[in-house]
Amino acid sequence: MARTETRAEIRFILNGEDVALSDVAPDETLLDWLRLEQRLRGTKEGCAEGDCGACTVLVGRLSGGKLVYESVNACIRFVGSLDATHVVTIEHLKGKDGRLHPVQQAMVGFHGSQCGFCTPGFVMSLYGLWMRSPNPSDAEIEKALQGNLCRCTGYEAIMRAARAISDYGQAAKDPLLAEREQIAKRLTTLRDGRRVDIGEGKARLVVPASLDDFAEIYQAEPKATVVAGSTDVGLWVTKFMREISPVVFIGGIDELKFISEADGVITIGAGVTYTEAFALLADRIPTMGTLLNRLGGEQVRNMGTIGGNIANGSPIGDTPPPLIALGARLTLRRGAERRTIPLEDFFVAYGKQDRRPGEFVESVTVPLPAKDEKFAVYKVSKRRDEDITSTLGAFRLRLAEDGTVASIRIAFGGMAATPKRALAVEAALEGKPWTEATVEAALAAFESDFTPLTDMRASAEYRMLAAKNLLRRFFVETTGTRAPVQVGRAA
Amino acid sequence: MNKHTSPDFKAAKIAGAVHTDQRHDSAHKHVTGEAIYIDDMPEPAGTLHGALGLSTVAHATIRGIDLSAVGTAPGVIAVLTAADVPGENDISPTGRHDEPILAEGAVQFFGQPIFCVIAETREQARRACRLARIEYDELPAVIDVWDLDPAKDRLVTPPLTLKRGDAAGTIAAAPRRVKGRMRVGGQDHFYLEGHISLAVPGEDGDVTVHCSTQHPSEVQHMVAHALGVPSHAVTVEIRRMGGGFGGKETQGNQFAALAAIAAKRLGRAVKIRLDRDDDMLATGKRHDFVVDYDVGFDDEGNILSVDYIYAARCGFSSDLSGPVTDRALFHCDNAYFWPAVHAKSAPLYTNTVSNTAFRGFGGPQGMVGAERIIDEVAFATGKDPLEVRKLNFYGTRERNVTPYHQTVEDNIIHRIVAELEESADYDGRRREIAAFNNHSRIVKRGLALTPVKFGISFTATHYNQAGALVHVYTDGSVHLNHGGTEMGQGLYVKVAQVVAEEFQIDIDRVKITATTTAKVPNTSATAASSGSDLNGMAAQDAARQIRKRLTDFAADKYSVPVDQIAFLPNRVRIGNQEIPFPDLVKQAYMARVQLSAAGFYKTPKIHWNRDKGEGHPFYYFAYGASCSEVSVDTLTGEYVVERTDILHETGRSLNRAIDLGQIEGGFIQGMGWLTTEELWWDGKGRLRTHAPSTYKIPLASDRPKIFNVRLADWPEAHEPTIHRSKAVGEPPFMLAMSVLHALSDAVASVADHRICPRLDAPATPERVLMAIEQLRREAGR
């Protein structure tokens, strides 16, 4: 393999200025860098774990040649992951003439701030929304604000402001739009095809130039921390103060960002974020769209990847159970070698996955439910949105012509040390008529499949009962009823 | 925006008068990120940073502390332990000497600060904390109060008893009786800006502390005690907090004291800003309660007598638990007349963080107990709970004496509830919901309308005083300072409106300045909804003194009677002529008239005898009501709030826009308390919900889908309050009870409303589902 050229510098644009950093620690967060190094103190720290949104900034990057801006949590975003991006902070919004940006004007006009500490984050999230949707519905606004906590206003005034932003200025005349073309050009030049390699030992960070380059680096450095969205690893640093060097940042590798569909199978590259996966997944499997809308906040969905959700092996990751129920397969790669395994086989035990040193998740292939199949995934959490799952169940059912269960795959999260199939329940259903009596009789099998834990999210008793009831819900939904079977907010 | 535009001397009205919708004075700075919170201030050169080492067990004697690795960690300058406190190692706000700054010899809860590391950077300080080796001899830990005996187990402060009539006898003789027990959860404040203090040493051993606190005077006193210096050596300043909600009434003392100790010892500025997890572990929260109730009533639903015990998890020290549990009793009636009543508090010691003030200050927990009783009686008599509520409301001329023997003189709850019942179409929707539930097997709806009556004043009578300092400069611009603190509630702008009104000058001529103990001394906490009432009056007093001097001066200089002098917008009419306000000020200055005044106010009429449980602790009451409808998924317990209607009174509001924000925000915060905000301790007494990933406050998408909030525009304050406005900080919080009761109503539908669901708070999806299961079992279906 040809040796990749390297540079020892991260380059990006902060607001209007070019930044080149050769002295950057692999675990330096964007928030600390902004506040401590740049003394830009409009961006606030509320939780340092990506849950409150007070630190929200926008990161612009070229995606398929187009410049897109996304809200992110600066507190868990590493500076090393910013190569060839445009970071926009609250300080950039006000005009040089002192005029407020339309988003800011609306927030002032509608009394959208009280203590004001969360406000810069809200302004940035609303700006990100307004750029792509100048006249958003309430559901769109709520979705865009799932990752922003406000403790004072009760959100009502912020909602009024969000609905009215376009009354204060047109998105087409966004004061910052003028610089876009020029920013896009500058970002294009920043993508010079070189590997970034800074520091050594306990302070090394690498940004691979390509997928092959990543494979090579990781094979050589199998103990490296691979970081895609940093929505998990960010907390290793801010909360557990773990040493993570060397770090390989793969969030910018285009070849890991593909999502495609062929012959009833969707293939998702490991670097595809929840946001990027949303359109296709939600269209083909609507219930997956509902799930993704409840996974993290907008900022987390903009950073976090489905690949990472699988690779970190968490028992409460939201995407593995539905992917297992769908029969997804995982492609793992080490160097130039690839192998493909059923996703459920990847999860060996708590904290243990079937992944060899230097091997990484490259993609996941997801067979779509056939026309004669029914599929659903249901998440249960204490708070509806931006909460970690108490229990989550996914069901894929095919009925035979005589109304018996030809095949069913059921997988749960939050019920065991790994995402796990409910094999006993499946066995209790297969071949039987798909009736309420069958379902009721099968419920006992949950006890042999799962022994859930009690923790701060839910008791074992509740997890077990809710899990059983999700099967009941699936039954009711698949057998037709005019009465509602779930509560929720219209999208 | 303080633009230097010339005032309009012919204006018909000033900009920023009272009773107008002024935006928050810092709104422009909030949205641009230019508002400066303590962590945003430029640090003095050489500023050091502190982090705290916390106990990892709930209760133990400390056998040994080895901090050698901490002290030699990179960047570490000093490590403080209890032995390094030069003055008193105590920050008990009520003087009970039960709350050390740093633990000494023993730890009493998981998360208790034991030592404090000072390092060059915050990260170095945090990392160094983890290197400590502390050996514990663990002791039995009391975590929950459910199984404690209020009569025998340890209390942190003496209990209160309220009684009127023969409660026990009346219950025994009543036609019907029900007893029960309810759990009411606590709540973390989750202010977005965590605790922070920046201490800057000065000469003569003085220190200035910038502290995110609702109570600068108390921080001043605590720091002075900790340092062993007089109060005059300590100045405490706060421009704004990123939220307080009661969590910064006493809880900032500890960090201010440590920063000041370190700053003085090292001769360098020291900043302590807690990580969110440490903040949530080491600082107090809303008290959770177990309420035992015993009620006598008749077949009509008339409640005849109530007997209560309110047992609270106070944590390891008293902090404000005495007044908090007192206030729970003060609101054990909510808006209802209990003909005979006996209520006792039990402020219990536990090995958990010491609980503290939180919006409502025990009142919400008290009221939830009252509303449970209403539910019990309604289910027992088969009546709609709203009917039972109305039946038992306080009267206006009779049935109007509270359990603490204060007569309710300003009762407007009947009209508030009647108007809301009509505008929310309670009866029509009650029927619709019944029809819906009939055909909907899985999703069930529920509806409830609940009232709020909340007592306004500090129950510690001496706290009901305030001071202000007003300067008029020779150009006619005004400098305003008062003892109240700004935590987002809009206090500063409201008080500025009062001052602008007095002088009849545009509000942008009034400069709002940071609260500091050096300008207005001996202030009370900005708490108990009292901020505008007290500080508005004090500022008005200061402004009136200056205005009187200006009036007397003008009368003298222009030889006109005083009654021919009037302050018009930005100008003064003196006899037949009008001169600009700044001109009159300039002339007064030249004539050596004092243009600065200190104002003062103390609330009249109030008194309280705690030993007897009798008095007039509240100046007045604030009223409101809300009506909520929910949908509940009976398979998972998940729910959504479909609609909420609120009617809330604020007297003649100083600023309806600000008050609306308090009502909406208070309701949602209260809803969080009663629904998804759950504090959870594991078997070892470790709080496991100490970050937003595990502790779930409401999101925008948790708001009621339809949310109609109205301010009642007809009432005016019964008492001569500031421009006849009424307090609005806390009362709306309790409007959220309608959500809890709507959930209860939906749960009850699975057993045809024959059994009281006894739904405890917080009503998480889990609690809702378990209540449904329980009802199904009891109903045998």
UniProtKB/TrEMBL annotation, chain A:
Pfam families: CO_deh_flav_C (PF03450), FAD_binding_5 (PF00941), Fer2 (PF00111), Fer2_2 (PF01799). Transmembrane segments: none annotated. Residues 8-93 form the 2Fe-2S ferredoxin-type domain. One of its GO terms (molecular function) is FAD binding. Signal peptide: none annotated. Residues 198-371 form the FAD-binding PCMH-type domain. Keywords: FAD, Flavoprotein, Iron, Metal-binding, Oxidoreductase. This is Xanthine dehydrogenase small subunit. It comes from Kumtagia ephedrae. The gene is xdhA.
TrEMBL record, chain B:
Keywords: 2Fe-2S, Iron, Iron-sulfur, Metal-binding, Molybdenum, Oxidoreductase. Residues 32-140 form the Aldehyde oxidase/xanthine dehydrogenase a/b hammerhead domain. InterPro entries: Ald_Oxase/Xan_DH_a/b, Ald_Oxase/Xan_DH_a/b_sf, Ald_Oxase/xanthine_DH-like, AldOxase/xan_DH_MoCoBD1, AldOxase/xan_DH_MoCoBD2, AldOxase/xan_DH_Mopterin-bd_sf, Xanthine_DH_Mopterin-bd_su. It comes from the Bacteria. SMART domains: Ald_Xan_dh_C (SM01008). GO terms for molecular function: 2 iron, 2 sulfur cluster binding; iron ion binding; molybdenum ion binding; oxidoreductase activity. Its cofactor is FAD; Mo-molybdopterin cytosine dinucleotide; Mo-molybdopterin; [2Fe-2S] cluster. It holds the Pfam family Ald_Xan_dh_C. Belongs to the xanthine dehydrogenase family. This is Xanthine dehydrogenase molybdopterin binding subunit.
